[in-house]
UniProtKB/TrEMBL annotation:
Pathway: Phospholipid metabolism; phosphatidylglycerol biosynthesis; phosphatidylglycerol from CDP-diacylglycerol: step 2/2. Its EC number is 3.1.3.27. Lipid phosphatase which dephosphorylates phosphatidylglycerophosphate (PGP) to phosphatidylglycerol (PG). PANTHER family: PHOSPHATIDYLGLYCEROPHOSPHATASE A. It is an enzyme of class 3 (hydrolase). Pfam families: PgpA. It catalyses: a 1,2-diacyl-sn-glycero-3-phospho-(1'-sn-glycero-3'-phosphate) + H2O = a 1,2-diacyl-sn-glycero-3-phospho-(1'-sn-glycerol) + phosphate. This is Phosphatidylglycerophosphatase A. The keyword Manganese does not apply.
């Protein structure tokens, strides 16, 4: 039994090779991290960690600009991937998790403890989906819908992370 996704979605036979060799699916699947059968969203968020760290090295303004680029590009990437797969928000599409963690980390100075707490908060909000995240997840479609619920989870997580940081707990 493989830990990696090999599945038939609609008319498409998905294999790791078919995903990794298609530029849109490669990005949508978070550089391949969405291939894991178990917890692909968590694995996509793990894949966001080095991206976040590299963006931080570029400086604050570049971090914000690059994060915005990831979010905007994600609408198209996720929308095209959903069309290719014939399924809205297929579990292996994790570009939205990459964007969500980047958004989570926007408001606090980078540190590994802050990243760990941000990671946990983001995963919690992304899994539990409190209102309005659940409403967006159910009502907004296309690439915009795939991205928006995770961006909201990132904003909510980032807000709590900021409060925690301001209290001196990080």
């Amino acid at each position: 039994m493989s830990i990696f996704l090999t599945d038939k979605i609609g008319k498409n036979e998905l294999t790791a090779k078919s995903i990794l060799t298609d530029p849109v699916l490669f990005l949508a699947f978070g550089f391949g991290s969405g291939l894991f059968k178990k917890a692909p969203g968590t694995m996509g968020t793990v894949a966001a960690i080095p991206v976040c760290w590299l963006f931080v090295l570029a400086g604050n303004y570049f971090y914000y600009a690059l994060t915005l680029a990831v979010v905007v590009a994600g609408v198209g990437i996720c929308g095209m991937a959903a069309k290719k797969l014939g399924e809205h928000d297929f579990g292996g599409i994790v570009w939205d998790e990459v964007a969500g963690l980047l958004v989570t980390m926007c408001w606090v100075p980078f540190s590994w403890p802050a990243l760990l707490v941000g990671f946990v908060l983001f995963r919690l909000f992304d899994i539990v989906k409190p209102w309005p995240i659940i409403w967006v997840d159910r009502k907004v479609s296309g690439g915009f819908g795939i991205m928006l619920d995770d961006i909201l989870a990132g904003v909510m997580s980032g807000g709590i992370l900021l409060i925690i940081a301001d209290m001196g707990w990080l």
